[in-house]
Amino acid sequence: AEIVIVPSAAAAGVLVADEIVKLIAARPDAVLGLATGSTPLSVYEALRPRVEGVDLSRVRGFALDEYVGIDPNHPESYRSVITKEVVEPLGLDPALIRTPDGALETIAHAGEDYERAIAAAGGIDLQILGIGTSGHIGFNEPGSSFASRTRVKTLIEQTRQDNARFFDRVEDVPMHCITQGLGTILEAKHLFLLAFGEGKAAAIAGAVEGPVTSSLPGSAIQLHPHVTVVVDEAAAADLA
Ligand code: F6R
Protein backbone atom coordinates (compact mmCIF):
# COMPACT_ATOMS: atom_id res chain seq x y z
CA ALA A 1 0.00 0.00 0.00
CA GLU A 2 0.96 3.59 -0.45
CA ILE A 3 1.07 5.26 2.99
CA VAL A 4 0.43 8.99 3.21
CA ILE A 5 0.90 10.66 6.59
CA VAL A 6 -1.01 13.93 6.80
CA PRO A 7 -1.07 16.61 9.49
CA SER A 8 -4.80 16.37 10.14
CA ALA A 9 -8.08 14.75 9.25
CA ALA A 10 -8.90 17.90 7.29
CA ALA A 11 -5.78 17.42 5.14
CA ALA A 12 -6.76 13.80 4.52
CA GLY A 13 -10.20 14.99 3.48
CA VAL A 14 -8.70 17.33 0.91
CA LEU A 15 -6.42 14.61 -0.46
CA VAL A 16 -9.23 12.10 -0.95
CA ALA A 17 -11.73 14.71 -2.15
CA ASP A 18 -9.26 15.79 -4.85
CA GLU A 19 -9.02 12.16 -6.02
CA ILE A 20 -12.80 11.90 -6.14
CA VAL A 21 -13.09 15.12 -8.16
CA LYS A 22 -10.49 13.81 -10.63
CA LEU A 23 -12.32 10.51 -10.91
CA ILE A 24 -15.67 12.21 -11.60
CA ALA A 25 -14.08 14.49 -14.21
CA ALA A 26 -12.84 11.39 -16.05
CA ARG A 27 -15.99 9.40 -15.40
CA PRO A 28 -19.15 11.42 -14.69
CA ASP A 29 -21.02 8.25 -13.70
CA ALA A 30 -18.27 7.09 -11.31
CA VAL A 31 -19.23 4.59 -8.63
CA LEU A 32 -18.17 5.67 -5.15
CA GLY A 33 -17.91 3.37 -2.16
CA LEU A 34 -19.08 5.36 0.85
CA ALA A 35 -18.19 4.82 4.49
CA THR A 36 -20.03 6.17 7.51
CA GLY A 37 -18.83 6.84 11.05
CA SER A 38 -16.58 9.77 11.99
CA THR A 39 -13.58 9.04 9.78
CA PRO A 40 -14.90 9.98 6.30
CA LEU A 41 -16.60 13.20 7.39
CA SER A 42 -13.58 15.34 6.45
CA VAL A 43 -13.72 13.89 2.93
CA TYR A 44 -17.38 14.77 2.53
CA GLU A 45 -16.72 18.24 3.92
CA ALA A 46 -13.79 18.85 1.58
CA LEU A 47 -15.90 17.71 -1.37
CA ARG A 48 -18.54 20.41 -0.93
CA PRO A 49 -16.58 23.43 -2.21
CA ARG A 50 -14.73 21.26 -4.74
CA VAL A 51 -17.80 20.05 -6.60
CA GLU A 52 -19.53 23.40 -6.95
CA GLY A 53 -20.46 23.70 -10.60
CA VAL A 54 -19.55 20.05 -11.29
CA ASP A 55 -22.30 17.90 -12.77
CA LEU A 56 -22.83 15.11 -10.22
CA SER A 57 -26.20 14.02 -11.56
CA ARG A 58 -24.85 10.66 -12.75
CA VAL A 59 -22.59 9.83 -9.80
CA ARG A 60 -23.46 6.52 -8.22
CA GLY A 61 -22.65 5.28 -4.74
CA PHE A 62 -22.83 2.28 -2.45
CA ALA A 63 -22.51 2.46 1.30
CA LEU A 64 -20.43 -0.18 3.06
CA ASP A 65 -22.97 -1.18 5.62
CA GLU A 66 -26.22 -0.63 7.50
CA TYR A 67 -27.68 -1.63 10.85
CA VAL A 68 -30.23 -4.42 10.76
CA GLY A 69 -33.69 -3.79 12.14
CA ILE A 70 -33.24 -0.04 12.48
CA ASP A 71 -35.91 2.27 11.06
CA PRO A 72 -34.38 3.75 7.88
CA ASN A 73 -35.64 7.13 9.11
CA HIS A 74 -33.82 6.79 12.45
CA PRO A 75 -31.22 9.59 12.46
CA GLU A 76 -28.40 7.08 13.02
CA SER A 77 -29.39 4.62 10.30
CA TYR A 78 -26.62 4.70 7.72
CA ARG A 79 -29.25 5.59 5.11
CA SER A 80 -30.00 8.75 7.11
CA VAL A 81 -26.32 9.48 7.70
CA ILE A 82 -25.44 9.12 4.01
CA THR A 83 -28.43 11.29 3.07
CA LYS A 84 -27.44 14.01 5.53
CA GLU A 85 -23.65 13.94 5.05
CA VAL A 86 -23.32 13.09 1.37
CA VAL A 87 -26.46 13.09 -0.77
CA GLU A 88 -28.01 16.37 0.36
CA PRO A 89 -24.91 18.57 0.77
CA LEU A 90 -23.46 17.43 -2.57
CA GLY A 91 -26.78 17.34 -4.39
CA LEU A 92 -26.45 13.74 -5.53
CA ASP A 93 -29.39 11.83 -6.99
CA PRO A 94 -30.68 9.80 -4.01
CA ALA A 95 -31.93 7.10 -6.38
CA LEU A 96 -28.34 6.43 -7.46
CA ILE A 97 -26.94 6.16 -3.93
CA ARG A 98 -27.63 2.82 -2.30
CA THR A 99 -27.26 1.52 1.21
CA PRO A 100 -27.75 -2.14 2.11
CA ASP A 101 -31.34 -2.81 3.13
CA GLY A 102 -31.47 -3.61 6.84
CA ALA A 103 -35.24 -4.25 6.95
CA LEU A 104 -36.05 -7.52 8.72
CA GLU A 105 -38.74 -8.51 6.18
CA THR A 106 -36.29 -8.65 3.27
CA ILE A 107 -33.04 -9.40 5.07
CA ALA A 108 -32.88 -12.99 3.75
CA HIS A 109 -32.05 -11.75 0.23
CA ALA A 110 -30.78 -8.24 0.96
CA GLY A 111 -27.12 -9.27 0.70
CA GLU A 112 -27.54 -10.91 -2.68
CA ASP A 113 -29.62 -7.97 -3.93
CA TYR A 114 -26.87 -5.57 -2.94
CA GLU A 115 -24.16 -7.64 -4.59
CA ARG A 116 -26.23 -7.75 -7.77
CA ALA A 117 -26.66 -3.97 -7.73
CA ILE A 118 -22.93 -3.39 -7.30
CA ALA A 119 -22.17 -5.79 -10.14
CA ALA A 120 -24.80 -4.14 -12.37
CA ALA A 121 -23.12 -0.78 -11.74
CA GLY A 122 -19.87 -2.26 -13.01
CA GLY A 123 -18.23 -2.39 -9.58
CA ILE A 124 -16.96 0.30 -7.25
CA ASP A 125 -14.31 2.66 -8.62
CA LEU A 126 -13.12 4.24 -5.39
CA GLN A 127 -13.86 2.86 -1.95
CA ILE A 128 -13.48 4.97 1.19
CA LEU A 129 -12.74 2.88 4.28
CA GLY A 130 -12.38 3.59 7.96
CA ILE A 131 -11.12 0.98 10.39
CA GLY A 132 -12.58 -0.10 13.71
CA THR A 133 -10.50 -0.50 16.86
CA SER A 134 -11.27 -4.23 16.40
CA GLY A 135 -9.56 -4.06 13.00
CA HIS A 136 -12.84 -4.32 11.11
CA ILE A 137 -13.37 -2.71 7.72
CA GLY A 138 -17.00 -2.34 6.80
CA PHE A 139 -18.50 -4.25 9.68
CA ASN A 140 -16.41 -7.33 8.97
CA GLU A 141 -15.45 -8.19 12.50
CA PRO A 142 -12.50 -10.47 13.37
CA GLY A 143 -13.00 -13.93 11.92
CA SER A 144 -14.66 -12.70 8.73
CA SER A 145 -13.72 -14.65 5.64
CA PHE A 146 -11.61 -12.89 3.03
CA ALA A 147 -14.04 -14.32 0.47
CA SER A 148 -17.13 -12.97 2.22
CA ARG A 149 -19.85 -11.09 0.35
CA THR A 150 -22.55 -8.73 1.61
CA ARG A 151 -24.29 -10.48 4.50
CA VAL A 152 -25.62 -10.11 8.02
CA LYS A 153 -23.04 -9.96 10.81
CA THR A 154 -23.21 -9.60 14.58
CA LEU A 155 -21.47 -6.50 15.91
CA ILE A 156 -18.96 -7.34 18.61
CA GLU A 157 -19.29 -5.67 22.01
CA GLN A 158 -16.24 -3.44 21.38
CA THR A 159 -17.83 -2.02 18.22
CA ARG A 160 -21.15 -1.42 19.96
CA GLN A 161 -19.28 0.43 22.73
CA ASP A 162 -17.34 2.45 20.12
CA ASN A 163 -20.57 3.39 18.35
CA ALA A 164 -22.56 4.11 21.53
CA ARG A 165 -21.64 7.79 21.10
CA PHE A 166 -24.11 8.00 18.23
CA PHE A 167 -26.99 6.66 20.34
CA ASP A 168 -28.48 7.55 23.73
CA ARG A 169 -27.27 4.35 25.35
CA VAL A 170 -25.06 1.43 24.31
CA GLU A 171 -28.16 -0.80 24.61
CA ASP A 172 -29.66 1.17 21.72
CA VAL A 173 -26.84 0.25 19.30
CA PRO A 174 -28.24 -2.49 17.06
CA MET A 175 -26.82 -6.00 17.58
CA HIS A 176 -26.67 -6.83 13.89
CA CYS A 177 -25.62 -5.21 10.67
CA ILE A 178 -25.52 -5.97 6.98
CA THR A 179 -22.11 -5.26 5.50
CA GLN A 180 -20.23 -5.62 2.28
CA GLY A 181 -17.93 -8.61 2.68
CA LEU A 182 -14.15 -8.50 2.55
CA GLY A 183 -14.42 -10.17 -0.86
CA THR A 184 -16.76 -7.38 -1.99
CA ILE A 185 -14.46 -4.65 -0.70
CA LEU A 186 -11.40 -6.23 -2.33
CA GLU A 187 -13.09 -5.94 -5.74
CA ALA A 188 -13.26 -2.13 -5.60
CA LYS A 189 -10.70 -0.66 -7.99
CA HIS A 190 -8.97 1.70 -5.56
CA LEU A 191 -9.18 1.55 -1.78
CA PHE A 192 -8.58 4.57 0.44
CA LEU A 193 -8.16 3.51 4.07
CA LEU A 194 -8.31 6.47 6.46
CA ALA A 195 -7.61 6.61 10.18
CA PHE A 196 -7.02 9.37 12.69
CA GLY A 197 -6.01 9.38 16.34
CA GLU A 198 -4.00 7.11 18.60
CA GLY A 199 -6.96 4.81 19.14
CA LYS A 200 -6.47 3.56 15.56
CA ALA A 201 -2.67 3.07 15.69
CA ALA A 202 -2.73 -0.64 16.54
CA ALA A 203 -5.42 -1.44 13.95
CA ILE A 204 -3.51 0.49 11.26
CA ALA A 205 -0.19 -1.22 12.03
CA GLY A 206 -1.92 -4.60 11.94
CA ALA A 207 -3.75 -3.83 8.71
CA VAL A 208 -0.71 -2.45 6.88
CA GLU A 209 2.20 -4.47 8.26
CA GLY A 210 0.84 -7.34 10.33
CA PRO A 211 0.20 -10.87 9.14
CA VAL A 212 -2.64 -11.20 6.67
CA THR A 213 -5.21 -12.76 8.94
CA SER A 214 -8.95 -12.80 9.41
CA SER A 215 -8.22 -11.98 13.08
CA LEU A 216 -7.52 -8.47 11.80
CA PRO A 217 -9.89 -8.06 8.85
CA GLY A 218 -8.27 -4.80 7.74
CA SER A 219 -5.15 -6.80 6.84
CA ALA A 220 -7.14 -7.96 3.79
CA ILE A 221 -6.01 -4.70 2.14
CA GLN A 222 -2.58 -6.30 1.71
CA LEU A 223 -4.16 -8.55 -0.94
CA HIS A 224 -5.33 -5.55 -2.98
CA PRO A 225 -3.12 -4.07 -5.72
CA HIS A 226 -4.20 -0.44 -5.32
CA VAL A 227 -4.53 0.85 -1.78
CA THR A 228 -3.82 4.31 -0.40
CA VAL A 229 -3.63 4.55 3.39
CA VAL A 230 -4.13 8.10 4.67
CA VAL A 231 -3.37 8.57 8.36
CA ASP A 232 -2.40 11.29 10.79
CA GLU A 233 0.76 11.02 12.93
CA ALA A 234 -1.13 9.50 15.84
CA ALA A 235 -2.70 6.73 13.77
CA ALA A 236 0.68 6.10 12.10
CA ALA A 237 2.50 5.82 15.44
CA ASP A 238 2.80 2.00 15.48
CA LEU A 239 3.99 1.68 11.87
CA ALA A 240 7.59 0.48 11.57
C1 F6R B 1 -18.53 2.54 8.57
C2 F6R B 1 -17.76 1.32 8.71
C3 F6R B 1 -16.79 1.10 9.83
C4 F6R B 1 -16.11 2.36 10.32
C5 F6R B 1 -15.25 2.04 11.54
C6 F6R B 1 -14.57 3.28 12.09
O1 F6R B 1 -19.33 2.48 7.42
O2 F6R B 1 -17.92 0.45 7.91
O3 F6R B 1 -15.80 0.18 9.42
O4 F6R B 1 -15.33 2.91 9.30
O5 F6R B 1 -16.05 1.48 12.53
O6 F6R B 1 -15.54 4.14 12.62
P1 F6R B 1 -15.20 5.66 12.94
O7 F6R B 1 -14.82 6.29 11.65
O8 F6R B 1 -16.46 6.24 13.49
O9 F6R B 1 -14.07 5.62 13.91
In words, what does this structure look like?
By secondary structure, the chain is an alpha/beta fold. The protein has one domain (2-236): Rossmann fold (3-Layer(aba) Sandwich). Helices cover 33% and strands 18% of the residues. The strands form two sheets. A seven-stranded parallel β-sheet has the order 1-10-9-6-2-3-5, with helices on both faces. Strands 4-8-7 form a three-stranded antiparallel β-sheet. Strand 2, helix 2 (41-50) and strand 3 (60-63) form a beta-alpha-beta unit. The longest helix is centred in the N-terminal third of the chain and has 18 residues, at 9-26. The radius of gyration is 16 Å and the shape is globular. The two termini are 14 Å apart. The model has no long low-confidence stretch (mean pLDDT 98).
Q: Any idea of the CATH class?
A: Alpha Beta
- Helix coverage percent: 25-40%
The helix count comes to 8
Rg over C-alpha atoms, rounded to the nearest angstrom = 16 Å
Function: Catalyzes the reversible isomerization-deamination of glucosamine 6-phosphate (GlcN6P) to form fructose 6-phosphate (Fru6P) and ammonium ion.
Pathway: Amino-sugar metabolism; N-acetylneuraminate degradation; D-fructose 6-phosphate from N-acetylneuraminate: step 5/5
Family: Belongs to the glucosamine/galactosamine-6-phosphate isomerase family. NagB subfamily.
EC number: 3.5.99.6
